[in-house]
Amino acid sequence: MIRTPSGTIELAPAKVLDALAGVDAPVAEPGTLLLIGRRDLRSKNSWLHNVDRLARGPERAMLYVSPGDAHELGIDDGGTVSVGSAAGRIRVPVRLTDEVPDGVCSLPHGWGHDDDHARLHVAARQPGVNSNTLTDGSVLDPLSGTVQMNAVPVRVEPAPRGS
């Protein structure tokens, strides 16, 4: 027996819906994009990055940017960009794609395998970047109370050559 008022599984309880009503959708401020995460089928977050057979192939830890935003920002497909937030800055290869809308960029989580103590010898061949560098541990998601990992405001610009 399910002990809810309706006797069924309530996927959208009134308390949650009421809380959602007071939350505004994030909007990128001028000059910023909203960073969201992304998953990769061959990596299962990060725990398959050290499996040689699955780690082969092209770079997957790339920032996805829409062609429209890339044009405005002077970013070239396959180039390297600098991504900065209130918490930190990273350099990452960029891929232009219609898979993300204007105003949004996407970077997969679970990368950054260049730590000497990680003992991830296979994964270290394509370490990628740690997206957590861009998240601020003091900024919490209003509904879950956990660190905000999506819709992080970032500035994206072509990375200076040689830096």
Number of helices: 3
Q: How many individual domains?
A: 1
What's the CATH topology label?
Answer: Barwin-like endoglucanases
Tell me the strand percentage band: 15-25%
Overall geometric form: globular
Low-confidence parts: none
Order of helices and strands: HEHEHEEEE
Radius of gyration equals 19 Å
Characterization of this structure:
By secondary structure, this protein is α/β, with parallel strands linked by helices. It has a single domain (27-158), classed as Barwin-like endoglucanases (Beta Barrel), CATH 2.40.40. The protein is 12% helix and 18% strand. The chain has a 6-stranded mixed barrel. A hairpin with a 4-residue loop joins strand 3 (80-84) and strand 4 (89-96). The longest helix has 8 residues, at 14-21. The model has no long low-confidence stretch (mean pLDDT 87).
